[in-house]
Amino acid sequence: MDLLLKSVVAAIIVVAILAVAYTVLKSISAKGVSESTAVSLVVNDLQRSFPGAIINVTNVSPSTYPGSWHIVLALTLNATRPCPTYEVLSYDYPIYGFVSRNVNLYTQNCVIYGFLQNKSYILAAAPVAIARSYNMSIPSVTNFVNKYGYSNINVTAAYYSKLNLLGKNYTNIWMVSYSSPLANKSINIILSQVGGNLLFNYSVPK
Questions:
Q1: Statement: the pTM of the whole predicted model exceeds 0.85
Q2: Does domain 32-108 have CATH number 3.10.20?
Q3: CB-based contacts of 170: which residues, under 8 Å, 6+ apart?
């Protein structure tokens, strides 16, 4: 009898705790939080989950859920390596807490998912351009990375709507630059924004 009574009491306590937690969450949602607080909390949670990640908030607007904010952000992992991960996440906070509602994974492990369906895919972000420059197996890039080691390579990408390079005019291109503290030169790769085609590559002495 004592065991049955203890089980009933324990069940009542668990139900009470869940009810309180639900009430608190609904109360927070009803009262809402400020835009800056919502963004800060979501970003801080991501930083704890992905130390060293680059997080850029791209849009914040009132959520369709009253008292919450719809937050869209871009997350980049291993941003300066040849194969970064780049994804866009969205949150409705606080109604759904720190659980992303939509995930658009653009590139991971040097696979660019847009290219699987569309060869005229637009390279819209630096991490995607970097991944494209590496997964094309350009000999100068492959040799550079193999010689100095993947973990010793730093890669950056810059977009240009217009660029005159060595007397030639380029429009809507990405310049991806490979460097290493162990190397006496860097490698520059010029890609078209649409389709990610190789237009030019050259080395620059330090």
A1: no
A2: no
A3: 160, 162, 163, 164, 190, 199, 200
